[in-house]
Amino acid sequence: MPGLYFGAVLVVLAPVVALERRNAIGRCFKLFHGDFGASLARVATILGILIAASVIGGGVGVAATLAAPPQTASTGALIAAAAVSSGFAAVIGGAVRLLTDPLTVAAYADMRARVEPLSTAVLAREAGIR
């Protein structure tokens, strides 16, 4: 249980390091506990998307294994099944990153706004965006 808690707190570590660059782990804990319920909901949404993508990717891997059983399939069929499974996993992984990275930054911004006054202009200035 402590590992899950620590992992949930550190979901926003990348934006904290990128935008604040100081005391990152302590800052993650402060932001997470600023509004525990809202923070937990944001993190649970991100983790739910990751779990769903993992289940889908695993299902494709199982389907590839069933299509080309290792005991009876030829070497070519095994290579093709592994290539399809790996390719699909790479596509799913990229799609999930395109979805969860902005959600992680939004979760960071929401957590930070619950602790201190914050606007998009402040975040843009900290990120060096003009």
Key features of this structure:
mainly alpha, 6 helices, 82% helix, 130 residues, elongated
Topology, element by element:
Layout lengths: L1 H8 L3 H7 L4 H11 L1 H32 L7 H41 L4 H8 L3
Helix pairs in contact: 3-5, 4-5
Question: Can you describe this structure?
Answer:
- This protein is mainly α and 130 residues long.
- The protein has one domain (2-127).
- Helix content is 82%, strand content 0%.
- It has six helices and no strands.
- Helix 3 crosses helix 5 (75-115) and helix 4 packs antiparallel against helix 5 (75-115).
- The N and C termini lie far apart (42 Å).
- The mean pLDDT is 86.
Q: How much helicity do the residues have?
A: over 70%
Q: Largest sheet at a glance? A: none
What is the averaged pLDDT score?
Answer: 86
- Give the class from helix and strand content and strand pairing: mainly alpha
Reading the helices and strands in chain order gives HHHHHH
